[in-house]
Amino acid sequence: MVNRVGVGILALMVVAWLVVPAIADIIIYSDTFNTNNSVLLDGTAPEVRSGTLGGSSTANWRANTLTPEPWTRLGGYAQLAWGADTATQASAWLPFTPQNGLVYTYSFDFQKLRSCGNTQNWLAAGFLNSPDDPGLPWFNYASGPGVAERRDYSNLGWTYLDAGNAGNVDIPPGTLPGGNKQPVHFTIVLDTSNAAWTASFTVTDADGTYTRGPVAYATNPTITALGFGNGGAGGIVNNFQLTGLAVPEPSTLALLASGLLGLLAYAWRKRR
Q1: Residue 32 and residue 16: Cα distance in Å, rounded?
Q2: Are 61 and 41 in contact (CB under 8 A)?
Q3: pLDDT per residue over 86-108, tens digit each?
Q4: Which residue, 109, 226, 251, 265, has most beta carbons within 10 Å?
């Protein structure tokens, strides 16, 4: 009988071994922009494109190539070279369609270099719906959670966290994060594991960390891409990454736990 219990426990361990990888973060896209130095971002491949969980194994960047503001790979970051004092817009994205039952984490670093003196002075990133022209503003295609790092003519910084119909928050100058000429790390979490999707945000800079969410969507957004863009601001993007976490159904975990407990109880009774 003990041998049967041992076999049963071994079988449960095998099942658990198959389940555990499913609850580990899987990298869907990742790019530090260290490859293809000093070339236009458009048409280049991200360093990782696993083709899993809604991403594409053949994805290439679609990015603005027109002067004065083409996105360029510059040995460790993607830079938008700021030109004249205009509100020129430039976007970049990769194809992505979220699947239900997952937790997606989109993370990246922003650093502004310069800004023109108008209201369109932002760097932004997040999820998009059906983008088709990288020369148009990122906001034209925004769908679902996104962020914008802005500055006014006196270099005061704002951070805007936008969850679409789930609500948004505007972090004014003087609150976290501050000093938008310094690198700012953003994390956007899109949770599709429930019927109503949720969005969460974390913003970290030299002054500290600000969190927002989770906030639930009244209507789940339609998403076909993710990326970043600008409006009249020069800056860099680095450490771009999208991961997915496939969480097993609670019933699966409960079944494993109850099976293991049952076998242990059976073995205990036989030993008595």
Answers
A1: 34
A2: yes
A3: 556 788 999 999 999 999 999 99
A4: 226
